[in-house]
UniProtKB/TrEMBL annotation:
Annotated family: Belongs to the ligand-gated ion channel (TC 1.A.9) family. Acetylcholine receptor (TC 1.A.9.1) subfamily.
Subcellular location, record wording: Synaptic cell membrane
Alphabetized InterPro entries for the sequence: Neur_chan_lig-bd (IPR006202), Neur_chan_lig-bd_sf (IPR036734), Neur_channel (IPR006201), Neuro-gated_channel_TM_sf (IPR036719), Neuro_actylchol_rec (IPR038050), Neurotrans-gated_channel_TM (IPR006029), Nicotinic_acetylcholine_rcpt (IPR002394)
Protein name, entry field: Neurotransmitter-gated ion-channel ligand-binding domain-containing protein
Length: 336
């Protein structure tokens, strides 16, 4: 909402103050006077400006009229929401007469501007800058020149509240997602944690969809981040299900040789923090006996499979931690 100052002269509204007890000004309802047909060219609600209240005009004895109505300009503005909610938008407002040419109505841009005169204080936007330009154009319909004033408003979104509303859930998602990989391999709580994470992300995506305008040129990076987190949670859900199944149901079968060989080397020592000694010993025994298969107890098989499941959890933990770290650094460098 803003207050647009309109000044014009009406020859029919002149009088001599001496004839009316020194009266030099009148307050007249705007709908009882001639009003210039100044409209918003790029209006989003039709060819009109929404004025609020039954405002009065001030008519002076020399015929000059002053009308300053509180108005709402709803303009079509293409928004780039890539950095939402830490974005800065540039929006144009084009104002001009619809039927009067430059010989009939003279438009005068503001020489100076104050934020309070253009934008009513609000909790969403700060007005950073205003650029104005007076244009004179000739249209196909008419021979005369028609004037319009183009105001380019640069607006900065107030993001203090969004930093808490958005960044806090981001870290909660990371903590819950990584915690699922640290639980014991047979723990059903893995599924619970991943389910809670998926519900949180889904709600955040829904909430962002309700807050964002329908017209935008680029999807917000934070929405893309939440979308990728939801996909990663689905993959983690599948991994947790697989790890639980391996830990509980594969004790009757030996670990495949290529997996056992991988876990017995330096890679297994790094992933399992040296807990692969049993696999190492078993692999060496098989190599010394020319790979003659020995009888192994069900307990030993189960230990090997649990170790393999633990290795999967460790691998996913490291990969997910690196991905989240890269995402956070990229987001802060790009947006903040």
């Amino acid at each position: 909402m803003s207050r647009a100052s309109n000044n014009w002269e009406d020859q029919k509204m002149r009088w001599n103050p001496d004839n009316y007890s020194g009266l030099k000004a009148l307050h007249v309802p705007y709908n009882e006077l001639w009003i210039p047909d100044v409209v918003l060219y790029n209006s989003a609600i039709g060819n009109k400006i929404d004025q609020h209240g039954m405002t009065y005009s001030i008519v002076y004895n020399n015929g000059s009229v002053l009308w300053v109505p509180p108005s709402i300009y709803q303009a079509v503005c293409k928004m780039d929401l890539r950095f939402w909610p830490f974005d800065r938008q540039s929006c144009k407002i084009v104002i001009g007469s619809w039927t009067h040419h430059i010989g009939q109505i003279k438009l005068q841009p503001w020489t100076t501007w104050r934020e309070s005169e253009i934008l009513i204080p609000n909790d969403e936007w700060d007005l950073v800058n205003v650029d104005e330009q007076l244009n004179e154009k000739k249209y196909d319909c008419c021979e005369e020149l028609y004037a319009d004033i183009t105001y380019t408003l640069t607006l900065q979104r107030r993001s203090e509240v969004y930093k808490t509303l958005i960044m806090t859930p981001v870290f909660v998602i990371i903590i819950l997602s990584l915690s699922a990989f640290l639980l014991p391999t047979h723990a059903g709580e893995k599924i619970v944690l991943n389910s809670i994470t998926a519900i949180i992300i889904t709600y955040l995506l829904y909430d962002a969809g309700q807050r964002l305008p329908a017209i935008a040129s680029n999807p917000p990076l934070i929405v893309l981040y939440f979308g990728s987190c939801l996909l990663m949670t689905a993959i983690a859900f599948f991994e947790s299900t697989l790890v639980i199944k391996i830990s509980r149901n594969y004790g009757a079968h030996p670990l495949p040789p290529f997996i056992k060989q991988a876990l017995s080397g330096w890679f297994g020592s790094f992933i399992l923090n040296g807990q692969n000694s049993q696999v190492q010993k078993k692999a060496n025994d098989e190599e010394l006996s020319s790979k003659v298969q020995a009888e192994t107890s069900t307990l030993e098989f189960n230990r090997e499979w649990i170790m393999f499941a633990s290795a999967l959890d460790r691998i996913f933990f490291i990969v997910y931690a690196l991905i989240y770290l890269i995402k956070i650094i990229s987001f802060y460098v790009t947006v903040l």
